[in-house]
């Protein structure tokens, strides 16, 4: 190639290839650029390195030629020198500081090139200057990978001596031994093994070197690997053994070698296939199959899908192999999991010779398979007429039906296999049989537009007006799907009735329009002299509606002359113009308007006009046509059932184009819907700034309030649309701005309330820029409360920075501070911020609850921890005398349990844990009643009394009873039960689940002072004292 391009090269390059050093020197003296590049981005030094001309290379380098330029493939002169084994040139380039780590487009260094070309001398020179002999290319290949792949024994020895890793993995985790085995380099295989290569190493697909050798058919390497101890049962990621791989690739010699080393012939892969399955299917697997059968392989083994080796021969038409299987006892009628035999599969794929063989070996030609289909069904489905003929000659039932009721004739008609169909018809098949959907073969041929099949069936007497379960005739289906129109034309000329109706009342005209079959529709119209496609006895959805909905203006032109009234309504009360306008079919809209379609007509459900629908669906051009052609200019402001105008719908959908059109048509911007929402409100909620500005320019009312008293600014703030807020406030006069910012809705909330309530910090920041907001007026549930409720730290910070730290003490109607709200909603960041601004820890709400009590009541242990760190008073009680500990013990949830344990960690005073509430219940009563075992244990350790009595006379132990009657029964039983002996207690201590102190309070007995210490607590009281 270089010689062919030599005439296009520079004189310097030509001199280099000519080997004339004097000419090179002369050209360089004449100022020829030594670094000039050709079309391949190569310079003279590339050519000299490739040629190996030491003197020329030396001259070029002395003339300031770049030592490591890259060509279009990123090869440097050093790459070329290594590729051509020019050691002297390599040494010279290295002396001149050539880049030894330079990489080509595949990230190969000169060392990789040297290894691939067996340039041992070059590699030796390179490694004197390189520290890393295991450098890899883009694929992760080391130089040893390249040497192993190319079979360079000498190079491999040299690299291994230089400590190149014999087990280095590339990016597919393949090692040099994999490549040597695959390429059949037996001497390299032995070398690598002797140098420590892992004989059973696996790549990413779990292939070992033995698999690689089996795949490439290298018998000698296979035998060497087996001698060296390779695992003959190793599995790939698909579960294939080396024997599977050899059979799949048709390498009989490798398979024989593996079998000689006792490789398992019955092993199955993840698909359940044995080597025999793969040998039966593979292109060159005949020898493998014969070998396996001689070794006693099971010819009836089934894979996961139930297929035997005979099935596999049927898939691929392996005729000779099927005979071998028969001779070794293969079950000819074995079925797979789909119910198919080998004959089914051979028939489906059209393997005539194999099908004949199977029939000769007495395969059952009438056996039902998948969906009850026989082999005859299968070959008709595949379209193989010769297979059909063979099976028919076997004497099968031509009219047998599958599970869906279809005969072979149905499938032939469905697939358009006219040869099979004619063969069946010539053998007197019943052309009138219907499937379970009531469809004959003629229906299927018509539905698929198979004219030849349809023609044959009609000639053979198939009823052209036969109706299926839905009432459809073949003409209905042809009108919908036969785009060429040949089937429609033939049917109407052979007594098919175009006006015959299906069960819903639709005719072939309806089907033709719905299928946009203009050609078929023309044939139908030409076949009927007078046609009426609407009326009281016809479906309300007319072909006119269908054409408008599809947007087919050509079909619409054919239909409009047939309709005296173009304003007929369908079941939803919509006219054809409604449907065309909603779908944006401009030509159809234009046609309908020209033919008298009215624009101001309302549909039957939403009472919308075509203008409403065009505005809603953003059909600008249709909308313009409708407004220009309207018989009533007031249509632009007409309202639907929800009192929405077209402008309201367009604004709500954000359809800017339609909004502009409607505003240019003088649409009113202040008409309100049933919720008293004008278009401005919808624009604000949608956040469309451009629409908002358009409406404001047209006189939108900024101060208007809806049914809830909200203005547009309330909604913009609640939605967090800063751009909408900016547009609204910039359009205000100073007086309007003051009113708008201070306006209260019917909840007494300002826009600032709603911005904080939804946590929109950017909106809050913008609103606070206005001096008109001087205080947090309005609803007592202040913006600070709202921000904390939404866990918005940013909003709280903005409010505190604007109004001062005093706002953290604001109270709502229930006397709750923001810190109470933080405790109730578990907002730890907000609570920490409020506490930094000196929020009162012990303020009480209208129920007397402090923030700590509120947090305990809700089971918010993170808030409790934050409050306890700030020394919140654990003695604080609410109006019912319940402390935080009472509330934590009052609910049997994991969160409340954690709260109780956290409070008890900070509580060591027995007076606190024994504080009674108004019902004289202590935390121990509540904990015991709710079954909080860890809390009960810790309460007792903190000195909780087990004998204190509540207002019902129950101790904590009796409080465990589910109702007062059970508690009374328990008390009676305990009063009459003799106490257990100390010996019994001492021998059963390990079986008790509660503390010894709790046991002692229930079972009291007179004991010695020593024994008393074992069973009594400090709160000892005898049964007789209490009862």
Taken from the alpha-carbon principal axes, the silhouette is: extended
Q: Could you report the average pLDDT, rounded to the nearest whole number?
A: 88
Strand count: 0
- Percent of residues in beta strands? under 5%
Alpha-carbon Rg, integer: 46 Å
**The CATH topology of the domain at 1-105, please?**
Serine Threonine Protein Phosphatase 5, Tetratricopeptide repeat
CATH C-level class of the domain at 1-105: Mainly Alpha
Number of helices: 63
Q: How can the largest sheet be summarized?
A: none
Indicate the low-confidence ranges by residue numbers. 982-1027
Mind telling me which CATH architecture of the domain at 1-105 this is? Alpha Horseshoe
How far is it from the N-terminal to the C-terminal residue, by CA?
Answer: 116 Å
Helix content: 40-55%
Instruction: Write out the CATH superfamily name of the domain at 1-105.
Output: Ankyrin repeat-containing domain
The secondary structure category is mainly alpha
Topology of helices and strands:
Layout: H1 11-18, H2 21-29, H3 44-51, H4 54-62, H5 77-83, H6 87-95, H7 110-116, H8 120-127, H9 143-150, H10 153-161, H11 176-183, H12 186-194, H13 209-216, H14 219-227, H15 242-248, H16 252-260, H17 275-281, H18 286-294, H19 309-316, H20 319-327, H21 342-349, H22 352-360, H23 375-382, H24 385-393, H25 408-415, H26 418-426, H27 441-448, H28 451-459, H29 474-481, H30 486-492, H31 508-514, H32 518-527, H33 543-550, H34 553-559, H35 576-583, H36 586-594, H37 610-616, H38 620-629, H39 646-652, H40 656-664, H41 679-686, H42 689-697, H43 712-719, H44 722-730, H45 734-742, H46 751-757, H47 761-767, H48 783-789, H49 793-803, H50 818-825, H51 828-836, H52 851-858, H53 861-869, H54 884-889, H55 894-905, H56 910-913, H57 923-929, H58 933-941, H59 964-976, H60 982-987, H61 996-1002, H62 1009-1015, H63 1023-1026
Helix pairs in contact: 1-2, 1-3, 2-4, 3-4, 3-5, 5-6, 5-7, 6-8, 7-8, 7-9, 9-10, 9-11, 11-12, 11-13, 13-14, 13-15, 14-16, 15-16, 15-17, 16-18, 17-18, 17-19, 18-20, 19-20, 19-21, 21-22, 21-23, 22-24, 23-24, 23-25, 25-26, 25-27, 26-28, 27-28, 27-29, 28-30, 29-30, 29-31, 30-32, 31-32, ...
């Amino acid at each position: 190639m270089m010689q062919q391009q030599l005439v296009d090269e520079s004189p310097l390059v030509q001199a280099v290839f000519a080997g004339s050093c004097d000419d090179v020197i002369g050209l360089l003296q004449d100022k020829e650029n030594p670094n000039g590049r050709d079309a391949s981005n190569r310079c003279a030094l590339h050519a000299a390195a490739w040629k190996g001309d030491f003197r020329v290379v030396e001259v070029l380098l002395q003339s300031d030629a770049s030592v490591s330029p890259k060509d279009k493939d990123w090869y440097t002169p050093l790459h070329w020198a290594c590729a051509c084994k020019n050691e002297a040139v390599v040494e010279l380039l290295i002396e001149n500081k050539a880049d030894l780590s330079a990489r080509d487009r595949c990230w190969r260094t000169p060392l990789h090139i040297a290894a691939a070309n067996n340039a041992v001398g070059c590699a030796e020179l390179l490694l004197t200057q390189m520290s890393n002999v295991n450098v890899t290319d883009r694929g992760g290949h080391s130089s040893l990978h390249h040497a192993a792949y190319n079979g360079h024994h000498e190079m491999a020895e040299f690299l291994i001596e230089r400590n190149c890793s014999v087990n280095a993995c590339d990016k597919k985790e393949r090692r040099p031994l994999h490549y040597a085995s695959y390429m059949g380099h037996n001497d390299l295989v032995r070398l690598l093994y002797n140098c420590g290569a892992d004989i059973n190493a696996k790549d990413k697909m779990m292939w070992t070197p033995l698999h690689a050798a089996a795949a490439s058919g290298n018998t000698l390497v296979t035998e060497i690997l087996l001698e060296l101890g390779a695992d003959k049962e190793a599995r790939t990621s698909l579960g294939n053994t080396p024997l599977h791989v050899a059979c799949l690739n048709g390498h009989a010699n490798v398979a024989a070698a593996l079998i000689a080393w006792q490789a398992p012939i019955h092993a199955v892969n993840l698909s359940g296939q044995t080597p025999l399955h793969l040998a039966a299917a593979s292109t060159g697997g005949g020898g493998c199959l014969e070998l396996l059968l001689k070794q006693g392989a099971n010819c009836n083994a089934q894979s996961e899908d139930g297929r035997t080796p005979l099935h596999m021969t049927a898939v691929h038409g392996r005729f000779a192999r099927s005979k071998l299987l028969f001779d070794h006892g293969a079950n000819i009628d074995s079925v797979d999991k789909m119910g198919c035999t080998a004959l089914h599969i051979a028939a489906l794929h059209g393997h005539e010779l194999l099908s004949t063989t199977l029939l000769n070996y007495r395969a059952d030609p009438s056996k039902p398979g998948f969906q009850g289909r026989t082999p005859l069904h299968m070959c008709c489905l595949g379209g193989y007429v010769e297979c059909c003929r063979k099976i028919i000659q076997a004497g099968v039932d031509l009219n047998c039906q599958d599970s869906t009721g279809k005969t072979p004739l149905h499938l032939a008609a469905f697939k358009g296999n006219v040869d099979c169909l004619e063969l069946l018809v010539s053998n007197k098949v019943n052309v009138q049989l219907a499937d379970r959907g009531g469809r004959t073969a003629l229906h299927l041929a018509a539905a698929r537009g198979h004219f030849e099949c349809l023609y044959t069936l009609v000639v053979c007497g198939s009823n052209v007006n036969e109706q299926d379960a839905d009432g459809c005739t073949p003409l209905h289906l042809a009108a919908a799907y036969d785009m060429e129109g040949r089937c429609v034309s033939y049917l109407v000329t052979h007594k098919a009735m175009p006006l015959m109706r299906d069960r819903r009342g639709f005719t072939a005209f309806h089907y033709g329009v719905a299928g946009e079959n203009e050609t078929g529709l023309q044939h139908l119209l030409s076949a009927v002299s007078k046609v009426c496609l609407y009326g009281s006895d016809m479906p309300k959805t007319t072909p006119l509606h269908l054409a408008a909905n599809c947007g087919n203006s050509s079909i619409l032109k054919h239909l409009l002359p047939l309709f005296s009234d173009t304003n007929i309504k369908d079941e939803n009360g919509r006219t054809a113009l409604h449907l065309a306008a909603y779908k944006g079919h401009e030509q159809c809209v234009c046609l309908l308007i020209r033919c008298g379609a009215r624009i101001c007509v309302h549909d039957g459900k939403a009472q919308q006009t075509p203008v409403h629908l065009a505005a809603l669906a953003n059909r600008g051009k249709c909308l313009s046509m409708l407004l220009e052609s309207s018989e009533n200019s007031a249509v632009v402001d007409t309202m639907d059932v929800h009192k929405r105008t077209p402008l309201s719908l367009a604004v709500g959908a954000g359809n800017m184009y339609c909004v502009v059109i409607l505003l240019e048509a003088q649409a009113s911007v202040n008409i309100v819907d049933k919720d008293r929402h004008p278009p401005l409100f919808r624009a604000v909620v949608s956040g469309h700034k451009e629409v908002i500005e358009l409406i404001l320019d047209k006189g939108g009312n900024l101060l208007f309030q809806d049914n809830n008293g909200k203005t547009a600014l309330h909604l913009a703030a609640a939605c967090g649309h800063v751009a909408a807020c900016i547009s609204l406030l910039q359009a205000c006069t100073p007086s309007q701005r003051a009113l708008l910012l201070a306006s209260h809705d019917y909840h007494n909330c300002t826009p600032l309330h709603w911005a904080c309530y939804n946590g929109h910090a950017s909106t809050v920041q913008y609103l606070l820029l206005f001096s008109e907001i001087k205080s947090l007026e309005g609803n007592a549930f202040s913006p600070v409360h709202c921000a904390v409720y939404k866990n918005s730290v940013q909003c709280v910070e903005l409010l505190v920075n604007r109004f001062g730290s005093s706002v953290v003490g604001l109270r709502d109607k229930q006397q709750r501070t923001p810190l109470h709200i933080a405790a109730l909603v578990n907002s730890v960041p907000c609570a920490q911020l409020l506490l930094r601004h000196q929020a009162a820890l012990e303020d009480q709400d209208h129920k007397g609850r402090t923030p700590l009590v509120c947090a305990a009541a809700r089971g918010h242990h993170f808030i409790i921890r934050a409050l306890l760190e700030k020394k919140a008073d654990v003695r604080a009680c609410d109006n019912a005398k319940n402390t935080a500990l009472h509330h934590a013990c009052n609910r049997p949830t994991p969160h409340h349990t954690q709260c109780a344990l956290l409070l008890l960690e900070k509580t060591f005073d027995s007076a606190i844990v024994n504080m009674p509430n108004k019902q004289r219940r202590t935390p121990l009563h509540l904990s015991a009643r709710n079954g909080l075992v860890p809390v009960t244990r810790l309460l007792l350790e903190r000195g909780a009394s087990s004998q204190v009595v509540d207002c019902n006379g129950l101790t904590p132990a009796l409080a465990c009873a589910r109702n007062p009657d059970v508690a009374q029964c328990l008390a009676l039983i305990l009063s009459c039960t003799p106490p257990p002996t100390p010996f019994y207690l001492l021998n059963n201590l390990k079986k008790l689940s509660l503390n010894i102190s709790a046991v002692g309070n229930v079972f009291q007995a007179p004991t010695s002072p020593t024994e008393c210490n074992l069973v009594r607590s400090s709160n000892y009281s005898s049964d007789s004292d209490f009862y």
